[in-house]
Amino acid sequence: MAARLSLAILLVVLAVAGRAAAQDYDFFYLVLQWPGSYCDTKQSCCYPKSGKPAADFGIHGLWPNRDDGSYPQNCDPDAAFNPSKVSDLLSSLRAKWPTLACPTNDGLRFWGHEWEKHGTCAENIFDEHSYFQTAISLRDQLRVLDALAAGGVNPDGGYYTLSQIKNAIRQGTGVEPFVECNRDESGNSQLYQLYFCVNASGDGFMQCPVSPGARACGNRIEFPAF
Ligand SMILES: *[C@@H]1O[C@H](CO)[C@@H](O)[C@H](O)[C@H]1NC(C)=O
């Protein structure tokens, strides 16, 4: 009787664990952010405690998403962000996943938010460490700033067309991102975030199945310096 009861409990535990780790998404958005455009707004920004980040694209997040445009979030309340699990990645995170939120801080809140809201929805393939490591390695593979430079698109405060930006990135990386713009203090549209799509196993770029719900650009896009 007791054995049967513990078997029943075990099966319930396995079912709950299995559900928590089930894949409830079809692909990922890897979202990269241009720090110059984050800061060049009415709201401005705050450099992190580690100092002004490099003038390069930083990571915003790696977000599981569904083909219909919806996405799961906050999937595992038991997997609170634990900085000690990524202690070997902290210097890479500071360099490649910098926070620009105010007030000035060490980035732990930003990384914790990304893991808890998005990362926990891909626990079928990632733990906290591999989530951050994978996003960093995907970002490094793209070398977006080099791709843009090769296409003559540089963060010099100049203006570019959407096709100049997309063509340069497609030629340099093999994939075309969705380009999101925000507005500078004078209301000009500027290159803010790039959404690349990554397949469900988290190790291959793909063409995006659906556009994100993000602000599209006009055809005159500023690329501010940082
Ligand atoms: C994702 O892409 C990688 C590399 O191209 C490939 O090995 C893997 O099978 C792909 N996974 C899916 C689910 O398509």
Automatic annotation (TrEMBL):
Q: Which residues form the signal peptide?
A: 1-22
| Residues the record marks as active site | 60, 114, 118
Q: Per its record, what are the GO molecular function terms?
A: hydrolase activity; ribonuclease T2 activity; RNA binding
- A Gene Ontology term for the protein's cellular component: extracellular region
Which biological processes are named by the entry's GO terms?
RNA catabolic process
- SUPFAM superfamilies with a match to the protein in the record: Ribonuclease Rh-like
Keywords, in A-Z order: Disulfide bond, Endonuclease, Hydrolase, Lyase, Nuclease, Signal
Q: What protein family is recorded?
A: Belongs to the RNase T2 family.
**What name does this protein carry?**
Ribonuclease 1
> What is the organism lineage in this UniProt record?
Eukaryota, Viridiplantae, Streptophyta, Embryophyta, Tracheophyta
